[in-house]
Amino acid sequence: QVQLVESGGGSVQAGGSLRLSCAASGYTVSTGCMGWFRLAPGKEREGVAVIASYGSTTYSDSVKGRFTISQDNAKNTLSLQMNSLKPEDTAIYYCAADPRQTGCWRSSLLYKYRGQGTQVTVSS
Fold first, then answer.
1. What Rg do the C-alpha atoms of the chain give, in angstroms?
2. Residue 83: predicted pLDDT
3. What is the model's pLDDT at position 36?
4. 52-58 long-range contacts, Cβ below 8 Å, gap at least 24?
5. Residue 110, helix vs strand vs coil
6. Strand duo 113-114 + 91-98: pairing
7. pLDDT in tens, 16-40
8. With contact defined as beta carbons under 8 Å apart, do 118 and 22 qualify?
9. Which end of the chain, C or N, has fewer beta carbons within 10 A?
10. What's the CA gap between 99 and 118, in Å, rounded?
11. Could you give the CA distance from residue 73 to residue 1 in angstroms, rounded to a whole number?
12. Spatial distance between the Cα atoms of 76 and 73, rounded to a whole number of angstroms
């Protein structure tokens, strides 16, 4: 059984930083595609950053240059370092995984596995 468990969310002021982690069990993070997505009230689900098994990364324009996705194969975790946070980054962030190795930049609903999410709140 695959489980993805996020941690690291919280409340910060604008300009601050947070580091999210996604611990995977029953799934090897270096397999296929993994990504971070977010859902904010009144908005549609949004892709934040994805990483392919061969290391290629893709970011949404809204976070490019501020967020960094990475994976730790030894710990079997996926991380998202978030710097220069803005109030519009406020959302529930969740990780997702899929064994298919192509087309990682796609809706999280097309990922086979998804975590429950962790809340990130950025105040101005």
1. 13
2. 98
3. 98
4. 52/101, 52/104, 53/101, 54/101, 56/104, 58/104, 58/105
5. helix
6. antiparallel
7. 999 999 999 999 999 999 999 999 9
8. no
9. N
10. 23
11. 19
12. 5
Which residue is listed with tokens 């859902």?
Answer: 39
Considering only CA atoms, which of 84, 81, 89, 35 is closest in space to residue 57?
Answer: 35
First CA to last CA distance, the chain: 40
Q: Which whole-number Å values give the CA distances from 91 to 42, 78, 99, 119, in the listed order?
A: 10, 18, 26, 6
Q: Taking a C-beta distance cutoff of 8 angstroms, is the pair 86, 14 a contact?
A: yes
- Of all residues in the chain, what percent carry a pLDDT higher than 90? 90
Q: Is the pLDDT higher at 108 or at 63?
A: 63
Can you give the pLDDT at residue 74?
A: 96
Flag whether pLDDT at 4 surpasses 90. yes
How many residues are present in the chain?
A: 124
- Separation of alpha carbons 124 and 110, rounded Å: 34
In order of 49, 52, 80, 105, the CA distances from 59 in angstroms are 4, 12, 11, 9
